[in-house]
UniProtKB/TrEMBL annotation:
One GO cellular component term: plasma membrane
UniProt similarity note: Belongs to the ATPase epsilon chain family.
Domain ATP synthase F1 complex delta/epsilon subunit N-terminal: 4-82
Keywords associated with the record: ATP synthesis, Cell membrane, CF(1), Hydrogen ion transport, Hydrolase, Ion transport, Membrane, Transport
Protein name: ATP synthase epsilon chain
Span list, region Disordered: 78-106
Amino acid sequence: MKTLTVSVVTPNGPVLEQEYEMVVARAESGEIGILPNHIPLIAPLSIAAVRLKKGNDERHLAVNGGVMEVSSNQVSILAQSAEKPEDIDEQRAREAKERAERRLQSKQDNVDYLRAELALRRATNRLNVIDK
Ligand code: ATP
């Protein structure tokens, strides 16, 4: 079967470069599945898991926003941050989740709710990817 060369890069460097048969990502417009010979595409990504499939293997990455570009069977994901499940510190993600939840529940004027909401989504995404 034909494959896609998938590369995931963050400001901290490359996270992954490997061949897969299918990529499923959550764009801001909805879920997108990419198979070989997909038409060229650029899509902004949500804070969500990216699913990478090859045969019966499926692996998930926690991807924090960014952009996915598809061209000539190359899928490039440039993200603010992205982690493989084995690289996620579960305790840190739990603490980040609790911190964000406390901020969202507080009634103080100086809370940046959007920032807390995004932190909550990043932490929840990491915990979901560990659970897969
Ligand atoms: P925290 O509040 O714990 O820093 P965050 O969501 O604000 O979480 P980010 O700004 O998204 O963190 O990421 C900063 C860097 O830390 C990135 O390199 C990211 O991959 C890494 N990172 C964040 N949380 C975790 C985690 N739970 N496990 C491993 N790496 C993490």
